Predict the 3D structure of the following.
Amino acid sequence: MSLLWLAGLCLLLTMFFSAAEMAFIAANRLRLRHLAEEGSSTAALYLEAFRQPERALSTAMIGVTMSHIVAGSALTWTLLPVLGAWAPVLATILLTPVMLVFGEIIPKAIAREWATSLILTLYRPLTWAASLLVPFVAFANFVVGAILRTFGGRELDMRSFVSREELKALLQMQPDEADVTTHEAQLIDKIFDLGDTTVREVMVPLVEVATLPDTASPRVATPVVIGRGVSRIPIYVQRETNIVGVVGAKDLLRRGTAAGTLDELKHPPYYVPETKRIDDLLREMQRDRTHMAVVVDEYGGWTGVVTLEDVLEQIVGDIHDEHERAPAAAGRVPAGSYRGAARAHIDGLNEAFDWALPKRDYETVAGLVLATLHRIPRPGEVFQVPGYAITVLEADTRRVVAVKIVPATGASNPGG
């Protein structure tokens, strides 16, 4: 008796399970959430099942495997009277490409394109199959869990279909290999880096922040705000290290004429530690509608300020308005050297010029200079770090302002 009909049925089942598996994974859950809110019971059931997807995915994989086995057995049984011992070989040769191409590759490709609409059709049949295959699914999950525990592993969280590292690797693909532009990939990659960046790395240091005493009049503050091109200015009492508030340019415009001192216009300062991650800071600034935070160290002394703009620049790059000059962190000058601000971040220079400036427990070129010399240098001093000669161009009694960097041969690739 010919069992070719059974092999054909198994091919159809393989197509169903393959398509259902891909649709289950690739469906647009945001769209399905909207459908569930509009009353779609299938969408609601799918979303609930996706919270613990092991059952559905195991059902699909076991269904595909069992269909392959039954199809191979049926075809072998049909060919056995004709080919004898060669029947299993021919059955394998015939079934493998058919099952692979028509049973898995094509259905999965189709399901990936129309995953959301297909899951609404395929989900209920998949749950019926899960009920029929529940002994096999339970046994398979038990064996997998036991093996993982035996070798000290942990059971996989199948909800994380793509890890952070895998997604970052996908974003590094060529534009024609991924469905995102190069600019979009760079923005997403920078968003990932927010969690690895601290406030200390992006803040404006204390020595570069314009401050005013709380006894100053709005008439004194207005030229400072205009001259520095800032929208907010910290206010201190008695000494600059004692910040008691922040005054905004809008406060000066709206209420400046009626106020006698800046103390009447100030808002309470928002303090954050140097070690705070800027992704957490961004959420807090959004929640509290705060645009400037005062950065403090472990001893409670303030070390600088960080603004909402400073955080956003970590994603989109430097933001400059029509009144703000935009000096480059470093620019090339004759003879193959580079002039740059000492507060330029080493990571930024290394990335921009394909350098390998050393970085340890400091963030900027000024930190590199001080860590190397262990003192405040004089203008004109020259010193070496591996692969680079650095000349101090500008410095005062407290800090380094500008430097010249000359890469040794082979230490840089300016055109890269």
User: Anything to note?
Assistant: The longest helix spans residues 54-83. The two ends are 70 Å apart (CA to CA). The longest strand covers residues 388-395.
